[in-house]
């Protein structure tokens, strides 16, 4: 395989130009590839460790997140002298991995993390799995015990290559110092091309210490690795035919559209066809929330309109999505009457969970571009645009009847949805929002309006507690002028809040909105609904005993800190937090313990069982459900009286 010549740098989320764009260009596939062949470096004698640093410099790496230790220490010595690569000393390797992920999601190219052998490397397993699940390009470089010690259970030895095989796209164990430039270049190429993912490079200490020859560029040699990026014309034409014939089609958009930088093309396709659009959790921002054709997020906690669109459609135009269980619910009852067009750059995803009537392997930008051209050509010669008015009448009725809403807690405590909505309104669509996993993640996905790609980061596939703070740190380093909020839960926050010390020392002024409900909120919600309110091991004591006191903790970590307990104080404190830009800020929002995320599809049930509020299940097949007015806000408080007969029912469960 020939080496790529350039790659595109992701522009900061606020749209300002990347200062390095002059040396990069977009790959033919629309993805982002590292520049390997920018210029030639004459051979020179260096150590293996120096070769690592020089390779990173030649690849244009600007930031590495990591912690030194015995076996990686040889790299840290030349790293000290580098004028191009900045090292950020994190407080835990998990923080390094998530920071690299957050950086990659904003920058649009691979983030880099580094750790030593044994426990340092194994602490990277979770963030590597997280990045791989969410198709984020990350390169991890780890030290390993010397070659003669491998397999002897030496001090701090762990077979990190073997351990990470299931959770990385690829990994390398370097046995020859002469291979270092080639292997590192290949690692970045694999991480960033095709379907992005996590790649690990493990280098024994004696390899790092040995003398070798460094030259650039290396010859990339990856036989068998040839991602298909250009879609097959026949498949595109068949997809266009199905779109033009459908009566109830929907664009089911996944995170692959953002990875392919194809949001502009998606907008063009949607407006050309008039199709409704749903964006998955990983695709929030790929299509503007404010657009009339956007029905919101589908899935377990998606909007009723988005779920209805999928369930009642006759054609799913699936772009860069993978039919995961959180979207489909019970697979056997998912969109039973729909044909499927499935476009994805990863052929392994097509047909994995749902049969595709028209499979299209290719880069999303290329697929959408070809679809637009084909549909335009067909309409110019043979067909008029299909009439989707009846389909839209149904969907608009559902959208009016079951809007996203929430109820104020009965005990008078602060509503988490109110807090998150206020943050979104204040920071606006140019800010970046990071969340971990749980209730706060779902509320942030629901109640902040996303208008642009790469403004919403979260741990989607793996659901990693502790993701938000370090990911926000990485995001802020990728786009320093952008306002970055970590919206975190009090459980998740206690996993990785030590990285606030990193932010304070390194000058990374992120803002943290701590949605403090005193519990492991999503687990408590399930216990409320499915375990007879038996709250086993979910009380964190952050309400009852204020252990820890998050304001004192944040101040001890070098942050400005505030606590808010009344809704009337929310806007004022958010404004204060936004005005502080010389250090991190933590706002401890004390919210009600019993707030729940709605809508909801219970695990293991079909999407037709979606509950718009507790005990309220819409009946999509009843015409009245799409036309009768319903006050969902009132329904959440008085479900027995708010819904007219036929529009919803009280669920027997």
Task: Describe the fold and architecture.
This is Acetolactate synthase. With about 650 residues, this protein is an alpha/beta fold. The protein has three domains: about 40-215, Thiamin diphosphate (ThDP)-binding fold, Pyr/PP domains (Rossmann fold); about 235-400, Rossmann fold; about 415-590, Rossmann fold (3-Layer(aba) Sandwich), CATH 3.40.50.970. About 35% of the residues lie in helices and about 15% in strands. Strands 3-2-4-5-7-6 form a six-stranded parallel β-sheet. A six-stranded parallel β-sheet has the order 11-10-9-12-13-14, with helices on both faces. It has a six-stranded parallel β-sheet with strand order 16-15-17-18-20-19, with helices on both faces. The protein starts with about 40 loop residues before the first strand and ends with a strand.
Summarize the structure.
This protein folds into three domains: 176 residues, Thiamin diphosphate (ThDP)-binding fold, Pyr/PP domains (Rossmann fold, 3-Layer(aba) Sandwich); 169 residues, Rossmann fold (3-Layer(aba) Sandwich); 175 residues, 3-Layer(aba) Sandwich (Rossmann fold), CATH 3.40.50.970.
CATH fold-level topology of the largest domain: Rossmann fold
Question: How far apart, in Å, are the first and last alpha carbons?
Answer: 57 Å
Shape category:
globular
- CA radius of gyration: 25 Å
- Number of helical segments with 4 or more residues: 25
Which strand order do you get reading across the main beta sheet?
3-2-4-5-7-6
What is the name of the CATH architecture of the largest domain? 3-Layer(aba) Sandwich
Which stretches are poorly predicted, pLDDT < 50 over at least 5 residues? Answer: 1-31, 621-653
- Percent of residues in beta strands? 15-25%
The residue-averaged pLDDT reads 90
Q: Helix content range of the residues, please?
A: 25-40%
CATH class of the largest domain: Alpha Beta
How would a textbook summarize the main sheet?
6 strands, parallel
Q: Which structural class is indicated by helix and strand composition?
A: alpha/beta
Overall number of domains: 3
CATH superfamily descriptor of the largest domain: Thiamin diphosphate (ThDP)-binding fold, Pyr/PP domains
* Total beta strand runs: 22
